[in-house]
TrEMBL record:
Protein name (database record): DUF3243 domain-containing protein
InterPro entries the record matches: DUF3243 (IPR021637), Uncharacterised_YmfJ (IPR024702), YmfJ/YflH_sf (IPR038292)
Gene3D superfamilies: Protein of unknown function DUF3243
Length: 85
């Protein structure tokens, strides 16, 4: 089972990566830019595995660059308190 198959596991995975990035001194701006790059990659390369991912994919596909940045930033905020660290 892939981490992408389950929404809660996906959020925990992202939360772990976010915590690691912060521990290594990555700035919030850099984290947000990476989140946008991940969103671009997922929208182009990965088929959504659950309803939540499908909604995000659909929103991403119609969003402007500025709106995609906002979606990425909100996802970062969503997972800030997730993860195992």
């Amino acid at each position: 089972m892939s981490v992408l198959d389950n929404w809660n596991q996906w959020k925990d995975f992202l939360g772990d990566r976010l915590n690691q990035a912060k521990q290594q001194g990555m700035s919030q701006e850099t984290i947000n830019q990476l989140a946008e790059q991940v969103g671009d990659y997922l929208s182009q390369q990965v088929d959504p595995k659950n309803e939540q991912q499908r909604v995000l994919s659909d929103l991403w596909s119609v969003a402007s660059q500025e709106e995609q940045q906002a979606i990425a930033n909100v996802m970062v905020k969503l997972v800030q308190n997730n993860g195992t660290h």
